[in-house]
Design brief:
With about 270 residues, this protein is of the alpha+beta class. It has one domain (about 55-265): Aminopeptidase (3-Layer(aba) Sandwich), CATH 3.40.630. The chain has helices at about 65-80, 90-110, 135-140, 180-185, 200-215, 230-240, 250-255, and strands at about 60-65, 115-130, 145, 150-165, 185-190, 220-225, 240-245, 260-265. Strands 1, 2, 3, 4, 5, 6, 7 and 8 form an 8-stranded mixed sheet that branches. GO terms for molecular function: acyltransferase activity, transferring groups other than amino-acyl groups. This is N-acetyltransferase domain-containing protein.
C-alpha cells in the first residue's frame, strides 16, 4: 500500500499519487494512527525557498531500472508529500518507516502484484551528485543512488499506471468498451524536489511519461489535481491536458481532502493493441 501524506506538502507536488492525503499539522509521533491508502492525488503549496539553477545537459529522465533508484524516489516522495516539524521526536525513524512503506508498495505495483493495475512504471528525473552545492545537502543525502559507478540524485518522480481507475479517485471515461482496460492510464505521485522548482523538471517528467504511455499503446492519459492547486494545473495544461470532470464535494468531505479535478489528454498510440 502507498502512504497517506499527513500534513500539507512542503514542496510543490504536482500529481495525484503517493497516497491520498489529509491535511494535518501534528508533530511526528509513531503512535499516531495513519490511514494507509493505495495511491494518491494531487496537492501543491507555494514554497518560497529560492530555487537552485541546474545544468540540464546532465539531466536524465527515464524509467527506473534499479531498486537503489526506487528507494531514492520513495525518499523524495516522503520528503515532498510530508511536512514534519524539525524538532519532532523520532522524526528520522518515522521518515524512514514511511519511505520503506512507499518503497515496498512501489516494488509491488511495478512487479504487477497489485490487483487492478495492468502495468506501472516509476519515471524519475536524476542529476549527478557533483552538480549540487552544500545548499542541497539534505536532498543529496536522502535521494542519492549509484548508477554505473556514478552518484546521482533523484530530483523528480512520478508513476505511470495502466489501469481503469485509481483507488478512491474519480475514473476517466475514455476510451469506452473493451479497449479501456488496455488503453487508459493515470499519472500519480508527481513531485519535484523543492530546491529545484522553476527549472521545468515537472514538465520534463510529464513529457517523458507521455512518451512511455504511447509506447504502451495508451490512447487516453489522466491525472487528478486539487482544485486550488494552481501550479499543478498550470503544469498539466502546459503539457496539453484539459478538464474532463470534477470530484463531487461530498466525496472530498468524506475522504477529508480538497476536491480534485480530473484532467485528460489524448495520445497517438505507437503500438497496436
Amino acid at each position: 500500500m502507498a502512504l497517506l501524506s499527513l500534513p500539507l506538502p512542503s514542496s510543490n507536488c504536482f500529481s495525484s499519487s503517493f497516497s491520498s492525503w489529509r491535511q494535518s499539522s501534528v508533530a511526528v509521533n509513531t503512535a499516531l494512527p495513519i490511514r494507509l491508502l493505495p495511491v494518491a492525488a494531487s496537492a501543491t503549496t507555494t514554497h518560497q525557498q529560492q530555487s537552485i539553477p541546474i545544468d540540464k545537459s546532465s539531466l536524465n529522465v527515464a524509467e527506473t531500472a534499479s531498486e537503489d533508484q526506487l528507494w531514492a524516489a520513495a525518499c523524495l516522495r516522503v520528503r515532498s508529500f510530508y511536512d514534519f516539524q524539525a524538532s519532532s521526536f523520532g522524526i528520522q525513524d518515522h521518515t524512514r518507516y514511511l519511505a520503506e512503506r512507499e518503497f515496498e508498495a512501489l516494488k509491488e505495483r511495478i512487479a504487477g502484484k497489485r490487483e487492478g493495475f495492468k502495468r506501472v512504471s516509476c519515471i524519475n528525473a536524476t542529476l549527478p551528485l557533483s552538480q549540487f552545492s552544500n545548499s542541497a545537502d539534505d536532498l543529496c543525502t536522502a535521494c542519492k543512488f549509484t548508477d554505473n559507478g556514478e552518484d546521482r540524485v533523484v530530483v523528480g518522480t512520478l508513476d505511470l499506471n495502466q489501469c481503469l481507475w485509481l483507488p478512491e479517485e474519480i475514473a476517466g471515461s475514455k476510451p469506452q468498451g473493451f479497449e479501456a482496460e488496455f488503453a487508459r492510464a493515470y499519472l500519480s505521485n508527481v513531485c519535484v524536489a523543492r530546491e529545484l522548482h522553476r527549472n521545468g523538471l515537472g514538465y520534463d517528467i510529464v513529457t517523458k511519461s507521455k512518451k512511455v504511455a504511447e509506447e504502451w499503446g495508451i490512447t487516453d492519459l489522466y491525472v487528478h489535481v486539487a482544485i486550488e492547486n494552481e501550479p499543478a494545473k498550470n503544469l498539466y495544461m502546459k503539457s496539453g491536458f484539459i478538464h474532463e470532470n470534477d470530484e463531487p464535494a461530498w466525496k472530498a468531505r468524506f475522504l477529508e481532502r480538497p476536491r480534485r479535478l480530473l484532467l485528460w489528454i489524448g495520445l497517438p498510440c505507437s503500438n497496436e493493441l
